[in-house]
Design a protein that fits this description.
Oligomer: single chain
Number of helices: 4
Distance between the termini: 82 Å
Strand content: 35-45%
Strand order of the largest sheet: 2-1-6-5-4-3
Largest sheet: 6 strands, mixed
Length: 148
């Protein structure tokens, strides 16, 4: 009889533990955060946060489907939307050690061109960013980076 009670107790303990672990399931990377990109300024601020502060939540929403990034250097490189999103997700939580300044170059009802300057020790990166309105939200459509 004691063996039977111990067996039932062990089975109940295993069952409860299994349900407890299943209920405490961590969030997966596939769950996507929603960010407010309803104005050009909000989208631009989000772009700066993603690129300089490692805030990758909602990064999929930030870029147009035909987004491209061109890095001007001795060996010019062009990255597409998928490559850039993958990069920013890998950099999640990483803050850049630089001074950031941003200015809006031109703005209209449907697009905005802005300039982001990142001053690192020893060099400066300038990022010219084009944002466009798609429906009710704003997205980054192009980025051109130059180093000095």
């Amino acid at each position: 009889m004691k063996t039977l009670v111990k067996t039932y107790f062990a089975a109940a303990l295993i069952t409860v533990s299994t349900f407890a672990m299943a209920a405490d399931k961590p969030t997966t990377k596939s769950s996507k955060a929603t960010v407010n990109l309803s104005t050009a300024d909000m989208a631009f601020d989000r772009y700066i946060a993603v690129t300089t502060e490692g805030q990758s939540a909602g990064v999929e929403q930030l870029f147009t489907t035909d987004f491209s990034q061109k890095i001007q250097s001795e060996n010019a490189v062009t990255n597409n939307r998928t490559e850039v999103i993958r990069f920013f997700k890998k950099q999640a939580g990483e803050k850049l050690n630089c001074n950031v300044s941003a200015q809006i170059v031109e703005k209209s009802a449907d697009y905005m061109i802005a300039k982001v300057t990142l001053k690192f020790e020893g060099f400066t990166m300038t990022d010219l960013v084009t944002l466009v309105r798609e429906g009710n939200s704003w997205k980054v459509s192009k980025s051109i980076d130059a180093y000095q």
